[in-house]
Amino acid sequence: WYSTPLRGGVPGMDEILARVVAPLPSYETRDKSPPPPESNSLEFMHFYKSLDKEDKVGFLSKLSQDFGVDHRSVSELSVKLLDTQLRDQATILQVEDRIRYNLTPRYKQLLGHISRVEGGVKFLVDLRADLLEIIASKTSESPHIRELNGTLKGLLSEWFSVGLLRLERITWQSPCEILQKISQYEAVHPVRNWTDLKRRVGPYRRCYAFTHAAMPGEPLVVLHVALTEDIADNIQSIVREFATLDSEEDVNKINAAIFYSISSTQAGLQGVELGNYLIKRVVRELQSEFPHMAQFSSLSPIPGFSSWLQGLLAQYRKEGRGSDLLSEQEWREVEQAVDSTPGPPTVDSLRKLIGTSEWMHSERLSGVLEPVLMRLCAWYLYGEKRRGYALNPVANFHLQNGATMWRLNWHADSSPRGVANSCGIMVNYRYFLSETSKNSALYLQNKVIAASEQVLGLVSQFQKNSKL
Amino acid sequence: WYSTPLRGGVPGMDEILARVVAPLPSYETRDKSPPPPESNSLEFMHFYKSLDKEDKVGFLSKLSQDFGVDHRSVSELSVKLLDTQLRDQATILQVEDRIRYNLTPRYKQLLGHISRVEGGVKFLVDLRADLLEIIASKTSESPHIRELNGTLKGLLSEWFSVGLLRLERITWQSPCEILQKISQYEAVHPVRNWTDLKRRVGPYRRCYAFTHAAMPGEPLVVLHVALTEDIADNIQSIVREFATLDSEEDVNKINAAIFYSISSTQAGLQGVELGNYLIKRVVRELQSEFPHMAQFSSLSPIPGFSSWLQGLLAQYRKEGRGSDLLSEQEWREVEQAVDSTPGPPTVDSLRKLIGTSEWMHSERLSGVLEPVLMRLCAWYLYGEKRRGYALNPVANFHLQNGATMWRLNWHADSSPRGVANSCGIMVNYRYFLSETSKNSALYLQNKVIAASEQVLGLVSQFQKNSKL
Amino acid sequence: WYSTPLRGGVPGMDEILARVVAPLPSYETRDKSPPPPESNSLEFMHFYKSLDKEDKVGFLSKLSQDFGVDHRSVSELSVKLLDTQLRDQATILQVEDRIRYNLTPRYKQLLGHISRVEGGVKFLVDLRADLLEIIASKTSESPHIRELNGTLKGLLSEWFSVGLLRLERITWQSPCEILQKISQYEAVHPVRNWTDLKRRVGPYRRCYAFTHAAMPGEPLVVLHVALTEDIADNIQSIVREFATLDSEEDVNKINAAIFYSISSTQAGLQGVELGNYLIKRVVRELQSEFPHMAQFSSLSPIPGFSSWLQGLLAQYRKEGRGSDLLSEQEWREVEQAVDSTPGPPTVDSLRKLIGTSEWMHSERLSGVLEPVLMRLCAWYLYGEKRRGYALNPVANFHLQNGATMWRLNWHADSSPRGVANSCGIMVNYRYFLSETSKNSALYLQNKVIAASEQVLGLVSQFQKNSKL
Amino acid sequence: WYSTPLRGGVPGMDEILARVVAPLPSYETRDKSPPPPESNSLEFMHFYKSLDKEDKVGFLSKLSQDFGVDHRSVSELSVKLLDTQLRDQATILQVEDRIRYNLTPRYKQLLGHISRVEGGVKFLVDLRADLLEIIASKTSESPHIRELNGTLKGLLSEWFSVGLLRLERITWQSPCEILQKISQYEAVHPVRNWTDLKRRVGPYRRCYAFTHAAMPGEPLVVLHVALTEDIADNIQSIVREFATLDSEEDVNKINAAIFYSISSTQAGLQGVELGNYLIKRVVRELQSEFPHMAQFSSLSPIPGFSSWLQGLLAQYRKEGRGSDLLSEQEWREVEQAVDSTPGPPTVDSLRKLIGTSEWMHSERLSGVLEPVLMRLCAWYLYGEKRRGYALNPVANFHLQNGATMWRLNWHADSSPRGVANSCGIMVNYRYFLSETSKNSALYLQNKVIAASEQVLGLVSQFQKNSKL
Fold it and tell me: Are residues C405 and C429 in contact, defined by beta-carbon separation less than 8 angstroms?
């Protein structure tokens, strides 16, 4: 009932599945099953690619439901396991191993065979992207689809295990094919043209990617680094500064490595940890190139802050607590700044004010808003949670990696996008190498966020003003 | 009682294991466990390498026994699974997934972490070689050791999945490091010197290896191919022929590809199918280089034939059936050849005769022995079984791959080793590409051996003469 | 008097020249002169680069005039040579060798030393570009400047001898750096964007360049090839056809190789034959990739045709021979087409007509003009000469290489540039491989142009109409 | 009359030469001569290679004599040059340029064409090796052969100009092909086996070679370097020390770079300076790898010392000055050491003594001989001259490069070869980087040898004892 009703429409679907998804061999003969001919896998891939979106859902539902685990044998073995609890350990281990084996979905073997043909791994990565979209969009809520997703994630995690990844430094000498992809995949600070791209792989910059033997020429996750004198507090100085294009690096001016963009390129590898490992490998790489370098930090965007803030203001207004978020003095200044009348309407004024980027160009408005927005933003990053973890996904990523929420930077991104997303504020997540392990464990297990005094100070100002 | 009694001797063993083998996170928090610092894995590796052989056994026993599956939670979940049998599928799948998760040995995570540090994969391959030796030598018969072995094999199978391997053609332009290893690993027809090696990667020869990103510079399995006019019936013409060294290949003289040596180099990858895939990849490679090539065949040694034959003769003599294996006419010829008296002693004469290589140099003796040894050898390869599969390991390998037992070749290997192992006989396992899939399945599932008329004819002569 | 008056202005010029340009060692000690320290060459390079354009002229004049050949010793040796005419050959050879040695300009050694430091060869190539510009612009008419130019050309010819060049195929996998340069250097059919560039190195296209060890990453001459079914008669089908971007090449559709663009990138290598050799190497390369390919041809622009034509018409008009170039019937058609009155003014109408591209869009006008412009163009290419060789530089290049003037193509380049330069006409110079040697020699030595019947037919029509 | 009489024997020789060696174009058309077809060059190469040694001499004689410079036109132009002496410089330069052009031997163009075909440069290098052998062996004393040699040397010097060479570091990862050649070419301290070779490219060692684009895979000159704590005084510690094979380099133990072997591999490149440039490039390379390294020195053999010494002793004896070379005290010690009687026979004893290596194993004999042989050797290196330059070729090489004769080392090479060549003595030529330029010029121009106090002290001891 909860599974997607299967359309009978796609001719050959049942026939193909029955043919290419071999039954799970018995436990005894599990090492005696020759791999099917490659044509099997190729046929499956070809058929799947030929389906339209709707038929893919039907196909995956059928595959996952009709070619999954043989529940009966699992339950029979469970009975047996309970019967053997008083027997010797060898017997218990044996029954457990049979259960483990019988918990293999029948389709898992097929996925393995597909991974071995040319283009097979990429096919499976894309197939998983389809599964994730089906699940996220609730197109299907079938538990079998979820199981298929889990099985595939497990396989991909092994195949994309960090030992199998290759770190590549991308330079202007790298193949055009890979640089074009680097350019396309850059979502954080879009690359405007090839001069821009050239600068991002030029002097005072480093660009690294993980690639994988089974997906040649395809960067899986890309990290852009700027080499600076101090920890950067402004992104335009990194992505817009043209002076760096032809200059030679002066190693004496390089004290800090700023991770200013990290992009995963494969939707289908969601949940397969790559970014974390890439940052750590790059730190090692940079330490070997610059032995004295001691400052590692991100300069990160804060997507979602503006819309969260608009929501917050709307809610405060609705609840008639409009005056709570700012001090009286601050409200006064806002009023003066926008020539508005006091009281609840001011909340609207404020909302309107930050709804455009005009205030950025007024020194006075900017001065009035700085303390207000900074402490609201600090709270957004530090205090707003989802299941106990930071609501902001970028914060969550770096905190998982063990970084410290180190510094909020005012007027750090004056691009239209930066102003629209986060009122121009950016944040440094700093990697203190001797503490990342501890921080990561504390965050993941106890949901504790490591933060600097600046951030904690802003948070406590927020709490005081907001009467929380 | 059946596990190896653990020596208390190695200081720090318990302490280290307790520290580096983290508990399995709960099912709920399984995605929230940060990886431990690399130093953890490095410490484990360093400690293990520092142990002597005996302590390694103790260490692995302890690791596998004390840090394996939590049996109690598995059995509790089994009870739960049985309780949910009438519930909806989502619930059943959920409980099954918990069982699957809880069947993970605690040490499995550690193995994953080790695979990610530099040299980690090679460490695990070597660790598994230790496990296999412990099991083969019955140093320990602990089921936990076997489980550890199984777990590790499973992981290695994923990491060394064929999609992740790289095919490399080895030539005289390849790095010296890799050629030196190729030379060392060649076990079938040992390389005598660098001129010999140069010829094996020179004209009319191909040498291919699988390598793996995690073990750079290390050929995992090596295949030597000779390009010939006809399917070769003699190994000396391949490994000793010096004329080929500087000549140019004449593509018109290349009709057949002879796989004359295949060597696995990593004991720890036993059971991880590589050779089969290598042969198939090489066939594809050769077909693209020589589109009209249609003959693919091994020229394989028959290790164990001589000692099997000696055993057989000893047994026949003991059973007083000495006269059975040869026809009267043949016995007479043997008698004449060795100037012996008839009857049971002749068996001894025969044994003694084939115990040295002298008969090879006598055309008469050779002529007398040819039909006898050829049919005995055919029977040894075709008729002698272990658990239903060919006893001879080389035969078993090629038959699993789907090859046909195609031709026995008399006087095919006149090297001392060849004569001692198999009375100079060698065999071609031929790869008919359109039939390997079918053959492989028939052999693995029904234990049917595909054989040519020549082989079947020899087998039936053996049966007739041997009164089987 | 004819040499550029040297400004005394640049401080240090005399001092530097005196220091870095060592005297020519005596004939006897010529092999005993250690190379000066590299700093010598670097200082020269640095000094020269720091000069502005005008000072460079002064500097080069001084270098070439004051540090050239020692004329007195040459004339003394000439006297000696005449004295030895009746002596033995060994003596004659010796004196000749001394003359040869003494004809070495003193600065030649310095040029050799510069070529050995990093970036030195590129420096000299650029220096020669300066010399060529000075000569072409008549900034200086000093014979010493010309001698310096000749000396440098000789050296560059040796260093860029074809045996030292490396053929590189440029693909989308080539380094971005080189592809960007390929894009910049493409002067014939400008690359619009990176998609355009990707197509020019994609399926059904080949792009080759010569590079040189001393100038890494710098393509010296670039040849673009289209692989087509027939010899192409239209450039837009090559540089604008988007369908080819992702398709796979079908080898059965590849019968012809069309050289549609060849660009030299280094002004300083003028006169050092590279393009000719590149075309010949590429032909070999293509023959080995497509053994059955038999058609090799350029599809070439005709720069200068339109302006030549305008000049011709202006002159005819001036000479009152306006009516000569077209037949009466043709004049009538032109008149009708432009609604003009007959007589001399029509020449103006015609000039005006072809001065814009509007006629291209009118089928009628186009039909009227085709026979006229085609025969005029044929004459321009075939009949107009400079010192006996084809006036049109592209024609001259391919004819020197031994190509045949094969086919004029109407409506072959409808780009604004194509219409403006040559009324949209393009020409195929075809390479009949068995005849290029002969053609080349005939052209270079006897100024004979190999042309097809189509071209010769058009030429004779022109002659008939033009009353030549 | 003095040229080799040409045998009429080789059929086709005249015909081929007449065909492939084109006449020199006139000065006016010199840029209008298309290159001949490649087949021309290939035919020449093939023909030459097919000749036996004697015919090669004949062939080269004919080529050089009959296809050389057109003497008449040179002498005519000489007359003209003298006539123009009072004319303007442009005219003089023009006539000079015509002379220069007409001094081109007709065969020079052919050599250029050959250099452009595949394998052509290597062919010419080998051809020059033949010429050098003909000249050295006085097989021919033709001045034309010498002129051909000079012309070819000039061309090779341009093609092998240092800017065109590529420095390659050779390691155990280098292609086997190149390592095998490195092994074969090592003439100074022969490589015994592949383990030996592996060590010479392993830790604490560097091996560099120059290669050239036109001769791929062929090291032209090879330099072996040992990285040591102090300047090495013993070669066995470098080429025999096995401990270094698997160790990691400890950068703190690396203070000095010892050039312990340099080998040119191409006889035909004699006189084309490569070794000097290689040493200088390697110094730069090492300085960039080890910024603090300040000691660069060779550890060089002294070939010829023993035979020079034997000759000296023989001559002294003949001249009855036997007692001159040693002090009375020294003679006494020699007498005692060999139990000989005094007087002239002692010279023979001494000759006999140093004729074998036995004295090396006697501490007493060794102690007696050390001061004697060291000062004789110092004299041999420093005082013995050929045309004013050091007689010893290794000394001459390093002194030309600007090195200082720094230290003679006793018991430095105890190999049979070392004892036989130089009584086990070796010498360090040290490269003081700030002085090599000056030293080189002083040596080459003024024949001044830079030497250390140790060497000068030994020399003056020799002079005192030898009553020179």
Answer: yes
**Is the same domain home to D286 and D343?**
no
CB-CB neighbors (< 8 A) of D115 in chain C: 161-163
Indicate the SS3 state at residue A311: helix
Domain boundary among B113, B142, B159: B159
- Residue B189 falls in the annotated catalytic set: no
- Chain B nearest-CA distance from A289, in A, is 18
Cβ–Cβ < 8 Å for D3, D142: yes
Q: Does D271 touch chain C (CB under 8 A)?
A: yes
Show the domain range for B204.
163-298
Q: Residue D340 — pLDDT band, cuts 50, 70, 90?
A: low
For residue A51, give how far its alpha carbon lies from the nearest alpha carbon of chain B (Å). 25
Amino acid B197 reads: L
Asked whether residue D452 is assigned to any structural domain, the reply reads yes
The more confident residue out of D362 and D128 is D128
Name the phi and psi angles at C425, rounded to 5. -85, 140
CA dist., res. A396 & res. A398, Å (int): 6
Vertex D33 angle, CA D28 and D39, to 5°? 160
Q: Is C176 exposed, middle or buried (0-12, 13-18, 19+ CB in 10 A)?
A: buried
pLDDT tens-digit map of D371-387: 999 999 999 999 999 98
Same domain membership, residue D272 and residue D332: no
Helices vs strands, H then E, count in chain B = 20, 9
- How far is residue D266's CA from residue D160's CA, in Å, rounded to a whole number? 12
Q: Which residues contact A59 (CB under 8 A, 6 or more apart)?
A: A10, A13, A17, A48, A51
Residues B319 and B265 in one domain: no
A89 part of a folded domain:
no
Q: What is the rounded distance in angstroms from the CA atom of residue C152 to the CA atom of residue C163?
A: 19
Residue A159, burial from CB neighbour count under 10 angstroms (0-12, 13-18, 19+): buried
Q: Which of D286, D227, D292 is nearest to D258 (CA)?
A: D227
Beta strands in A229-276 (DSSP E): 256-264
* Residues of C forming the active site: 300, 398
Determine the pLDDT at residue D336: 78
Residue D401: which residues within 8 A CB-CB, separation 6 or more? D275, D276, D279, D280, D431, D436, D440
Q: What residues of chain A lie within 8 A of the CB of B273, using their CB?
A: 35
Is the same domain home to B109 and B201?
no
Report whether pLDDT(B184) > 50.
yes
B314, B445: one domain: yes
Half-sphere exposure at residue D218, Cβ-oriented, CA atoms within 13 angstroms: 13
Touching A (3+ Cβ pairs <8 A), the chains are: B, C
Q: Tell me how far apart the alpha carbons of residues D197 and D182 are, in angstroms, rounded to a whole number.
A: 9
Mean pLDDT of chain C: 89
CATH assignment of the domain containing A65: 1.20.140.90
CATH code for position A255:
3.40.630.150
Are the Cβ atoms of A175 and C177 closer than 8 angstroms?
A: no
Confidence band for B5, pLDDT divided at 50, 70 and 90: very low
> Residue B465: CB partners within 8 Å, gap ≥ 6?
B324, B325, B326, B327, B375
Average pLDDT on B112-126 reads: 92
Same domain membership, residue B127 and residue B186? no
Pair B185, B262 in one domain:
yes
Rounded to 5°, the CA angle B280-B283-B285 comes to 110
Q: Helix crossing, A275-289 with A393-400: angle to 10°?
A: 60
Q: Please state the ipTM of this predicted complex.
A: 0.82
Q: Where are the beta strands (DSSP E) in D330-439?
A: 385-386, 389-390, 404-409, 426-430
Minimal Cα distance from A217: which residue of C? C173
Please identify, among B298, B328, B344, the residue that sits at the C-terminal boundary of a domain: B298
> CA A217, CA A341: separation in Å to the nearest integer?
60
